[in-house]
Amino acid sequence: MKTKVYLLVLLLLLLVAGLQSQTLSQVKLGVIGGLNFANFSGDDIEDLDDAGYDIEGRTLGHIGIIGNATVSQNLALQGEIAFSMNGSKWEGTYYDEIWLEYDTTWKHSINMLQVPVSAIYTVNLPELAFKPYLGAGLSASIPISSGFSVELGGQDEDFDYDDENFEELSSFVLGYQLNLGMEYDKYFCELRYERSITPVFDNKYIDDVFYKNIKLLVGFRFDSNF
Q: How would DSSP label each residue in 80-130?
């Protein structure tokens, strides 16, 4: 765990160093937030799908503080410290020891402290009032709260991922993101695709599950620069 925390701190330091490498007048701070259409992917999820489970996404949230440092006329470094809600919903059929059939629903929740860093390229279109942009980058996440609920036979029960006999959650997750957005004056909106590179679960039986998110975000940059 300590090594993974050090990696997150290192990414934060790289972000700060990137911001400080610019003049103070070139760094803009703001807030960002919106919806996270979250789900899981990977071979283990495909196995569940083949076994008859219905794998569905969950509509959750994302909120954070965002910084933008100009590198050149059209290129910027964008960093963020955010609270991101992730998860998935699985529906299937459970058979008990005497083969009675029950409809079962699993709802997974993984709330993460996330640090995404992207290189942003702004498309120069002088005839437009808004500025479209695209980008790509990496992110580091540490789960700060998590768990799942199971609805079986009309009854709900909540569990933690570290409960005995249940899959352990990874304490550190690396991922990547693709950014597509537009900016108008101090306001901007962004469509972001995210996927983890390292697995969500740290378990030898479930070791090929990754988060897969589509985020619809809006933001506001402050008048004064940092």
A: EEEEEEEEEEEEEEEE-TT--EEEEEEEEEEEEEEEEEEEEEE---TTSSS
> In angstroms, rounded to a whole number, what is the distance separating the alpha carbons of residues 170 and 201?
5
Model-level pTM?
Answer: 0.83
Mean per-residue pLDDT pooled into runs of 10, the chain (226 residues): 51 54 66 97 88 90 93 89 94 64 83 94 87 94 88 80 73 93 94 95 84 97 69
Tell me the chain's radius of gyration from C-alpha atoms.
Answer: 20
Q: How far apart are CA 75 and CA 22, in angstroms?
A: 12
**What is the C-alpha to C-alpha distance for residues 82 and 141, in angstroms, rounded to an integer?**
9
